[in-house]
Each structure stands twice: as structure tokens, then as C-alpha cells.
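Q: I have two molecules that I believe assemble together. Could you output C-alpha cells for the complex as a whole instead of separate predictions?
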Amino acid sequence: MMDLIVNLVSGLSLGSIYALIALGYTMVYGIAKMLNFAHGDIIMVGAFTVITTVSMLGLPPALGIIASIVCCVVLGVCVERIAYKPLRKAQPLAVLITAIGVSYFLQSLALLIFGSTQHSFPKIITVPAIEIGGLTIQGNMLVTLAVTTIIMVAMSLFIAKSRTGKAMRAVSEDRDAAELMGISVNRTITITFAIGSALAAVAGVFYCTTYGFIGPYTGSMPGIKAFVAAVFGGIGSIPGAMLGGILLGVIENLAKRYISTELSDAIVFAVLIIVLMVKPTGLLGKRVNEKV
Amino acid sequence: MMLKVDDIHVYYGQIHAIKGVSFEVHEGEVVSLIGANGAGKSTVLKTISGLLRPKSGTITFLGNDITHTEAYKLVNRGLAQVPEGRRIFLQMTVRENLDMGAYTQKDVSEADMEEVFRRFPRLKEREKQIAGTLSGGEQQMLAMGRAMMSHPKLLMLDEPSMGLAPILVEQIFDIIREFHASGTTILLVEQNAGKALAIADRAYVLEQGRITLSGTGADLAASDAVKKAYLGG
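A: Yes, here they are, computed for all two components at once.
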């Protein structure tokens, strides 16, 4: 029983990291109508920023995290402006291929700068583990859960209530109509990429703290998992991304503990396939009729 | 001069949809653009509002060349469009739709909101409802209310009567008259030529991307060519 609870907590913690990344995926999909397959690599860039600033330059961890967020936001916005914006009216396939290209570009760039060896991620979350009724829960998991919960609540409120959040929903639903309201679609898409990248930077810190090591390809697996989480929850749906991410983390962790470490990813993807067979739009996805 | 469209040509890919259209709208007028389905009426409106770009020609709004101005920048300058098919935000509430209409205003003014609700009491009843649950007539009212939230100087309406029952069509035209009476200049695109000519100070007939006739609403309504083609006899 204790064991189950400990695994559930670490699953929730991992899942909330996936949820943060999935939020970026789903928001970009909902608003820019594209799958940004370079989203996972933003995590890697963020993590290397932390390594550079904290491990190499010796800056305090808080500054390292801020630098990582700034760096990811700038990168996300630049990628959107340079690679995706010129393709705004192009076929979806062209945009998809471009996104994959950006992903390889970022990986190769990291390979050039940092080499192919794994770098150890600095211990920047130094909260001691706590014990409740005989179970020990690691400090970094508590911090992860607390911070991601705050971010998810804040994001939900932002999307529901703020002027910009409403504009994002309007753009997501009908670009031309939003433009006729005086909303700049381009600016809204830029903001979306900025927010998504900032979330990825934060997620990257937690992810790398959990795993301890990073390399140029570190971002791709959490990126794919988060994409799966977004689809699982219903791509384009913000609560869906949160729910999908958390469920994915819990399923992955329990599968690892009780079934098989090697098979855990296969089990995660099998669950996705089953969910999509039963509900093709994902758990919270709505069927939206394509406009002609 | 409120709006001057000068010899615009618009293409959809290879298709030459608008072949040199020119017309003007003066302050305080109701101008109707009538024509059959596919004549290019909506294309003209979308080009004015900046959603489409003309290949050549110019559009002047309140003395400024807006031919290449992005659509979202025109709202602030006093141009609003109620698009064809209403295009309200179906997944947002009625109130949020009106908020979006007031996006360019500094604050969403309660007075403006009340004004819309006064004109459209049905919307007040459904304020918190998701717009997708509204009936067609209510959606049209919401689209018009939403457009008024930006205090437009020129309101362009694209087929506001489309798909509505006759009684609702009457209501919609009454509201257009009200908007006009309160000082808004109107550019109306309609297939319902009878109604559109009755309300118009001046009107233009668009056929296959060209303007073929123009005159006062009454003159056009009396002309044999218009009667034959658009008024059923």
C-alpha cells in the first residue's frame, strides 16, 4: 500500500511535468493550428541554459532558471517568426516537416556546442524529503507538484478570464472573425509560442532534476510523451492536456513499478491507442466540424 | 467621403473574382451591394476589411489608403464587419463574444453592453450561455451586437438576412435602420434585393465581379433590369 502511494505521488509528479509540456503543445495546436514537433527540444535548450549558467558560470540557481525561461521564450518566438510564420497559409504538411526540421536543427546545434556526452544536471531544487505517516516523499517531487499546480491554475484563469486569454480562444476558434474584432492573429500566435516555451523551460528544469542527466536528444522523449498526453486528453483542449499529462505520468510510473520497466513506454502508447479507438477526439476533446 | 473603392481586382489563385470594381460610400448613407450568389459581393467586403488583398486598385477609408492595411488595424479606425454566416465564437459565451467585439476599446464599457442588451433583450437572457446554443436569429443579433461594441463609423453587413425566417428578416432590417439612425454609416451586401434596395440611399448591382448598375435604391428598385433579375418579375 505504502509502495503504491509513493509510486502514485511520483507518477503525479512526472505527469504534471508532462502536463506542462503538453499545455504548450495543445495551445500552439489550438491557436496556430500546427504541431510544433520542436517543442520538446525547447526543453533541452532550457536545460542546457541551466547547465551553462549554473554549473559552468556558477550563477545562483534562481538566476539560472530565469535565464532558461528567457532563453526558451526568445528561442520559441524566433522559431515561430523565422520558420513558421512564412508558412502561415501553406499546407499543414509543409509546416509539419518544417517543425521536424527545426527539431533536428536544435538537436544538431546542441550536439555541436555541448557534444554527444551526457551532462549532469545541477541539483538546483534542494528541498528536503518529507515523511508523512511512514512514507518518504522526495523534496523535488513536492516542489514539482506545487509549482505545476500553481502554473496550471494560473494558466486556466488566464485563458478563461484575461483579455489576451479570450483573444487566444477567439483566434483558436475563428482566425478571420478574430481579426475582424481587431485582434492581431500574428501577435496572438507569438504570445502563444512565448507562453508554451516558458512552460517548457520550467518543465525542463523539473524533468532534468528528476532524471539527472541531459544530452542533445533529451528533449525528444518528453516531447513525444507530452504530445501523446495532449492527444490523449484531446488536442487543443487545455484541461485535456493537463488531465492527459497527469494520467500519462501515473500510468507510466505504475507500469514501470508493477509490470515492466522495459515495457512501460509500450504500455503508455497502448493505452493511448485504446483511448483513441473508443474516443477518437481524446478524453476531453470536442468534435469540431471542419469549416468549408 | 467615408469609403472609396477604386478599380480593385481580386483573385482567388487563378480565378479572377473581382474585375475592376469601383464605388463609394458617403458619411451617413446606407449603401447596398446586391447581386446573385457568386457575384463577388462577399469578396468585395472581405477585401475592404483587409481579409483579402486586391491585386491592383486602391481602397480609401476616411481619407487614408487602407489597401494594404491589416484587418485588425482597421477596427480601431472605425470599420466593423458582420461577416457572412455570422461567424460568432460558438464556444464562447454571449458576453465573451461581446467582450471580443469591444477588444479594441480600452475597457469593455458596461454602458455599451447594456445598449446591446437593450436592443437585443434575448441576448441579455442568454448572457452566460455558450453562443453555439443560440438559434440562427439570435446568432445574427449577437454578430450585430458584437460589431457595434467597437463603435464603428462604417458598419459592413454581409448577408445579414441569410437563412432567417421572414419575421426575423424584418427585425434585422429594423435594427439596421436603428443603427443608421444613431449615426452609423452602413454598407450592406444582400441577396434579398427587395429589402436591400428599400433601405438603401444608393445601391450597386454586382454581376460576375463587375458593377453593372448603380443608382438610388428607389431608382434601381424601379428599373426593369433589376426587377427582372433580382426582384422576381
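A: One point stands out. Residues 1-22+55-68 of chain B form one domain.
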